[in-house]
């Protein structure tokens, strides 16, 4: 592909017309058209602005990358298979709250989907629970809270609804993991993560949750939001790994490796 063809593809992927892109850049739509047809090549300043406005890297516009074709998938596992795995594990390990939490979470998140995809939202809490179980975490309140951690924030479920069904420790973990406070974002985040850091179980769940979310942010977030997510992870999640080390040393080691290596991959590709 030529530079013009890559600009055109990026513009269409961003859902912009030539006129709309030209307006954002402060140029005429004829200029955008001439770039896309290859009549002219944008200068350095406009290349940088194009990349910023189209939310891509400059290198993706100017570098020829022929021959690299990959097939990607939005979801690695079928969520119904994961549900069966979690229920079977909870039943075998006699995790009463976790067993109830599986179907409770499925009902609560019914009709919801992951950002910018057709993947059912329940895929995420089930993945977090599977991750915990795969690392040998067999604590009932932890696995149950993994399944329920987004119910208060993203569904119509209330704290009172949870209290009618689940043990108080499970409910308290879900409450800790719910970011309900409004106001200055940085101040809210500091208070939110400070409260979580005081509870090793909540900290463990948050680290697993973030580890799972890091694997999917390229599908649903812009480059700017990915940058902010990386920054937030380094500021608040990496310190939580130290919190869980004493109680969950093996899990802390695995999560540290997974989180840090994924962050490095994003940084190199940004």
Structure description:
The chain is an all-alpha fold and 270 residues long. The protein folds into two domains: 60 residues, Orthogonal Bundle (434 Repressor (Amino-terminal Domain)), CATH 1.10.260; 191 residues, Orthogonal Bundle (Hypothetical protein af1432). It has 17 helices and no strands. Helix 14 packs antiparallel against helix 16 and helix 16 runs antiparallel to helix 17. The longest helix is centred in the C-terminal third of the chain and has 22 residues. The radius of gyration is 22 Å and the shape is elongated. It starts with a helix and ends with a helix.
Largest sheet: none
Order of helices and strands: HHHHHHHHHHHHHHHHH
Low-confidence stretches: none
Number of helices: 17
**Beta-strand share of residues:** under 5%
| CATH H-level homologous superfamily name of the largest domain | Hypothetical protein af1432
Number of beta strands: 0
Distance between the termini: 21 Å
CATH class of the largest domain: Mainly Alpha
Shape: elongated
Helix content: 55-70%
- Indicate how many domains the architecture comprises: 2
Rg value:
22 Å
Report mean pLDDT, rounded to a whole number.
92
Structure class: mainly alpha
Q: Which fold name fills CATH's third level, the topology of the largest domain?
A: Hypothetical protein af1432
Question: How does CATH name the architecture of the largest domain?
Answer: Orthogonal Bundle
